[in-house]
Amino acid sequence: MTAMLEVKDLSVAYGKITAVKGINFTVEEGQVVTLIGTNGAGKTTTLRTISGLLRPSAGEISFLGKRIDKVQAHSIVTMGLAHSPEGRRIFPRQSVEENLMLGAFARRDRTDIQADLKEAYDLFPILAERRKQPAGTFSGGEQQMLAMGRAMMSRPKLLMLDEPSMGLSPIMMKKIMTTVRTLQKRGTTILLVEQNARAALKLATHGYVLEVGKIVLDGPGPELLVSDEVKKAYLGED
Amino acid sequence: MTQFIQQLLNGLTVGSLYALIAVGYTVVYGIVQLINFAHGEVFMIGAFGSLATWQVVCQKSTGLWVLPIMIVGGALCSVAIALVMERFAYRPLRNAPRLAPLITAIGISIALQRAIQLWYPGATSNVPYPSIDGVTGGSLTVGSVVIQRTTLFTLGVLVVSAAALYIFISRTRTGKAMVAVSQDPDTARLMGINVDRIIAAAFAMGAILAALAGVAQGLRDSNVSSTMGFLAGLKAFTAAVLGGIGNIQGAVAGGLVLGLIEAMATQYIPGQFGGNAWSDVYAFIVLILVLVFRPQGLFGARVVDRA
Ligand SMILES: Nc1ncnc2c1ncn2[C@@H]1O[C@H](COP(=O)(O)OP(=O)(O)OP(=O)(O)O)[C@@H](O)[C@H]1O
Ligand SMILES: [Mg+2]
Predict the structure, then answer these.
(1) CATH number of the domain where residue A209 is located
(2) pLDDT of B18-28, one tens digit each?
(3) Which ipTM was obtained for this model?
(4) CATH number of the domain that residue B50 is part of
């Protein structure tokens, strides 16, 4: 049985600067896997390469047993891999509902799309209340919910979230993390990138610690949470 | 008063032509931040394409039934040219410095003008454009105002095109994808939108409107020429800037406003700076004034508010 997502010896460069230097990791079906690391570690670069926005300079990426490192970004989504990007990146001029429907752009099954729209509204009732409002007028937390809902509209098998808790209040962050757990229970596999190591590791089946483009540590989430290295570097404890 | 209404009609007619062409500049700019300075030639090719269709397919009939066929023929030629230039000239330059596509556009313009002069029979000078029953000839008079049939046709084309454009952008899958790509191309790709295809669609859409303008201008002037795209292209570009580059409604409004400014200035500016000899100069004075004092255009550019 191969893993759902398999990243092998992956390197990614911006011109002469290599941001990701030969990393290996896997995500198994049903897991929440987290990638943690400080600013500039290469987390966003890794996710953008998996979703096809960037091309690797070396290495392989396989999703559901198929190589995807040469597949176009818009085709990768249709294979069942969604990416909620760093900074939310909602479409500000479009309404909430239009944003959600863009998430389902690659799908043709109209009735199921309506059902998923309803599901997104059930998950985040505030989106339903403001479905006609331009998304650009939303607060950061509301935009994050919209971004997650939008990514779910493609009915992904694997959902990648890039720093969903960025800039959120503790309450809002809790809400987002609970949602991650809910999505996992409903059968979505999740690859979570976070600065907030504590919250991410609590949820994670498995965690990887990234430092300047290399994976320096990995293990089950709860184990990493109590390991000395992680405590020192990411949780601010001695 | 009669004179004023007459100039109003003139201005709106010329303005409609600018508006139709201006949409092509603004849509492409909104999506790829590229000013396609060869768009004037897409308009010219549309005019010649419709003429060739009339000569070959329609057997030079003047019945109204040939008009839709001419329009389709012209639009097919414009779209083909626009898609070829997008695919083979602009796409390879998408990440190049901005000067590269600009110079390429100038090269394409000259090449297309020369190609028509060389290969289209009689195109070394003006080529006569047919009169079509119903849309040319015998003008109507309302009170003391004379309304040309071509005026009604041109205004009609603009109204129908603007409505179709609005429906296309706000209702269709491709239209919605275009709006998404113009706001954030990378995120649009994450939604499963094929950005290359949307860019091609934007070029094609601009080309169809340019071809319509080409037919309208041919009918109005009774002739077409290989160089007709140059001035029309520059004025339409001015209209797009006036309306706020990237803003579709702005381009339509900008075209109409520019047409009106030209008509009124030609009529009412007295002395040595007035009259027909100056009519082309006003557009460029407007362009300079807008670029200096209000570069975002009258109605606001639609590219600065990216997420
Ligand atoms: N477009 C780019 N051009 C050049 N270098 C880049 C580019 N994007 C990222 N980098 C560099 O690549 C490295 C990794 O960046 P990346 O955005 O992947 O980090 P990150 O782990 O997501 O950080 P953060 O937690 O701050 O979001 C950084 O050194 C960054 O400066
Ligand atoms: Mg990042």
Answers:
(1) 3.40.50.300
(2) 999 999 999 99
(3) 0.92
(4) 1.10.3470
User: A43 in ligand 1 pocket by Cβ < 6 Å?
Assistant: yes
What is the per-residue pLDDT across B35-80, written as a single tens digit (0 to 9) for each?
A: 999 999 999 999 999 999 999 998 889 999 999 999 999 999 999 9
Between the alpha carbon of residue B5 and those of residues B26, B135, B137, the distances in Å are 30, 21, 20
pLDDT, average across residues A160-178: 89
Stated pTM of the model: 0.91
**What ligand has the least distance to the C-alpha of A12?**
1
In-domain check, residue B176:
yes
Ion ligand 2: residues, CB within 5 A, are A 44, 86
Report residue A76 as tokens. Answer: 């990768």
Nearest ligand to the CA atom of B186: 1
Chain A closest-CA separation from residue B10 CA (Å): 36
Looking at the complex, report in whole angstroms how far the Cα of residue B32 sits from the nearest Cα belonging to chain A: 17
Residue B91, domain extent: 2-134+154-293
A1 lines ligand 1 (CB under 6 A): no
Cβ pair B187:A106 closer than 8 A: no
- Structural domain including A211 reads 5-233
User: How many domains are contained in chain A?
Assistant: 1
Which residues in chain B have their CB less than 8 angstroms from residue A88's CB?
307
